[in-house]
Amino acid sequence: MQFATLGRFFEELEATSGRKALVAILARLFTEAGPTLVRPVAYLCQGRLAPFFVPLEIGLGERLVAESIAQAYGVDRAEVLRRYSVAGDLGLVAQALAGEAPQGLDGEPLTVRDVFDRLTEVAKTTGAGSVERKLAIFASLLARCDPISAKHVTRIPMGKLRLGIGDPTMLDAFSLAIAGDTSLRKRLERAYNETSDLGLIAETLWNGGVEAIDQLGIRVGNPIRPALAERLPSAEAIVGRLGLAAVEPKLDGFRCQFHKRGDVVSVFSRNLEDMTPMFPELVEATRAYVLAREAIFEGEAVAYNAESEEYLPFQETTKRRRKHDVAEWVESLPLRLFAFDLLYADGENWCPRPYTERRAELQRRIAPNDTVLTTPVLMTSDADELHSYLLDCIQKGLEGVVCKKPDSPYQAGARNFNWVKLKRAQARHLQDTVDCVILGYIHGRGKRAAFGVGALLVGVYDADRDEFQSITKIGTGLTDEEWREIRARCDALTVDHRPARVASNLTPSVWVEPKVVIEVLADEITRSPIHTAGAVNGEPGYALRFPRLVSFRSDDRRAEDATTVAEIIEMYNQQSALRSRQAEEETDA
Question: 242, 405 in Cβ contact below 8 A?
Answer without folding.
Answer: yes
